[in-house]
Amino acid sequence: MKTKRGFTLIELMVVISIIALLMGLLLPALGSAMATARAKKCATNQRGMGQGLASFAADFNGDFFIPGEVWRASVMTPSGPQYIWGQGDPNFFLNNTGDLNSGMVALKYWVPNIVISPCEVNKEVGVKGEIAENGNIVAYDHSAYNPSEGSYWAQQSAPGGIRANLNNPGDKKSHVSYTNQTLMGDRLRSKWHSTAGSDSSLLGLRGTEGGMMRDAEDGSGEWTRSPVHDFMGPSGSWMSGILWGDNSITTETNYYPANSRYEPRIGEYSNGIKKDHIFQCEFTGSTDDSGNPSNYLAGDNYLSYSYLAGDEGFPNLLVTHDELKD
């Protein structure tokens, strides 16, 4: 009578070793495939946001959504003060990242989850209505839209609004992954419009603080410890899709994309086309009300993640950045 023979210990160890070897070969490939899928989904989000801007422009004479030019002051009529779309003094302080995103969601050109990248690595950034804020889930407040009372969306300072402030005291939760073209100065006229072309950056993932490309000093970490290098691509290097004015998307690995060029003019004379850093406003712009030239008012590309803006008379921009890793 034949007896059944089981596996010996050596045979089992050989099988386990082969499985471990296969896992070691397959896991990196699987991780790379998943990262590629996230990057493609991120590009899909950006393209959807670009289509939303284009749809708004088609409805409003070619202009992209500018928060401060929608949410205006009331105007006096024979029946008293009234809020009328497109009339009244603009509120340029609303031309920030949070109110841009909150307004586009309120007007139903975007949805809350499209402004969060699948490549997002900051645990303080998540979809509005899904990430806890001070321990509570707070959905976007669509009821804030009440044009007759001069209310067009839930402002980012309100509990139901979309926030873009990574250093907010008390609760650092934010609901936006992407920076946007700074809505100030010549950029509003030349780059934030349906006629903008492939040299106008509209949206991109966040960069380092101040767009720095190296540590300010040994060990300071502005570059080496920035979490923005974990969005996509090799560890320790920045990579992002950039949405351009013609709704094309390019994958960039540095802050000087080939598309980003600017021709500064001083005294009406051209000084030649220059490379343009997309996270810095490095060129001199027009003058403010005090007669001082301001880089905020120039027309170069400047992607920012802001929570408060200024007007052309008193140009200012309060921006926020990811905290450095330990």
Kindly state the percentage of residues in helix. 10-25%
Structural class, please?
alpha+beta
Overall morphology: globular
Going across the major beta sheet, what is the strand order? 8-7-6-5-13
Q: What is the structure about, briefly put?
A:
This protein has 326 residues and is an alpha+beta fold.
Molecular structure report:
The chain is globular, with a radius of gyration of 24 Å. It has 326 residues and is of the alpha+beta class. It has a 5-stranded antiparallel sheet, with helices on one face. The mean pLDDT is 90. The protein has one domain. A hairpin with a 2-residue loop joins strand 3 and strand 4.
Keywords:
single chain, about 325 residues, alpha+beta, five-stranded antiparallel β-sheet, two-stranded antiparallel ribbon, 4 helices
Strand and helix map with partners:
Blueprint: H1 9-59, H2 67-70, E1 75-77, E2 80-82, H3 97-106, E3 132-133, E4 136-137, E5 178-181, H4 186-190, E6 201-205, E7 240-244, E8 249-252, E9 261-262, E10 265-266, E11 269-270, E12 274-275, E13 303-304, E14 306-309, E15 317-319
Antiparallel strand pairs: 1-2, 3-4, 5-6, 5-13, 6-7, 7-8, 9-12, 10-11, 14-15
